[in-house]
Amino acid sequence: MPLRPKSAPKDASFETETLNDFLRAAGQGDETAFSELVHHVAPRLKTWLMRRNYSDSDAEDIIQETFVALWQQAAARFDPLRSNIYTFIVGIARHKAADRWRMRNAAVNNAAFVPLDDVADTLQSDAGENVDALAVRQALKLLPAEQYQCVYAMFYQGLTHEQLAANSGIPLGTVKSRLRLAYSSLRKNLG
Fold first, then answer.
1. Does 60 lie in the same domain as 46?
2. Does residue 18 share a domain with residue 80?
3. Band of residue 13 on the pLDDT scale cut at 50, 70, 90
4. 41 located within any domain
5. For 80-106, how does the pLDDT look when each residue is reduced to its tens digit (9 = 90+)?
6. Among 84, 140, 151, 182, which residue's CB has the most CB atoms within a 10 Å radius?
C-alpha cells in the first residue's frame, strides 16, 4: 500500500509575521487587518477551548471577549520580541475563561447563600413548630467559637458582614464563610 505524500508544511515564521502585522495594524485602528486576524486565529482558539471542555457557547463567548479586549487595548501592548502572537492571544483567552469561571462560581455561591439575618425565621419555617428558642440556643452552643462569635455579632450586636470584618480584623470572605458554615450547622442540628 503506497503512502500518501505529506502536504508541505506551512511556513510558521511567515504566518507569525503576517499575524504580527495584522495585530500591529489593528492596534492602529485597521478594521480589515483585525478581521483577518480574527479569521486566522479564532478557529485555533476555539479548538484550544473545546479541548479544555468548554461548551460551544462558552467557547464562542470567550473568543468574543478575547477579541474585544484585543481590539480595545491589547493590540497596542503586544511586543513580538517578548512572546509569540498565539501565546499572547491564548493568554488573554485564559484570563477571560478564568473570569467567566469565577463569575459563574460567584453566581452559584451567591444564589445558595441565605443571609443569617433571617436565620431564625428560616429555621422556624423549615423545621416547623418543633423549633423553639431553647433548641436554637442549644444548637448555637454546639457551634465552634469562631462561628458562634460571628452569629452573635450579627444577631445580638446587629453588625453587617463588613462591620464584623472591620471590627474583628478578619477578612470579609472569612466572615462570610464562617456564617455560611454556622447556618449549615444550625440547619443540620435543628432539623
1. yes
2. yes
3. low
4. yes
5. 888 888 888 999 999 998 888 877 766
6. 182
The reply to whether 5 falls in a domain is: no
Residue type, 17: E
H/E stretch holding 134 reads helix 133-141
Predicted local distance difference test score (pLDDT) of residue 65 = 92
> Is the pTM of the predicted complex or chain greater than 0.85?
no
- For residues 108 and 34, membership in a common domain is answered with yes
Q: What angle do CA 140, 144, 147 make, to 5 degrees?
A: 75
User: All 3 cell numbers of residue 122?
Assistant: 428560616
DSSP 83: S
**129 and 106 in a common domain:** no
Instruction: Kindly state the cell numbers that stand for 6.
Output: 505529506
CATH of the domain at 32: 1.10.1740.10
Q: CA-to-CA distance for 97 and 75, rounded, in angstroms?
A: 19
Q: Which residue has the cell 450586636?
A: 157
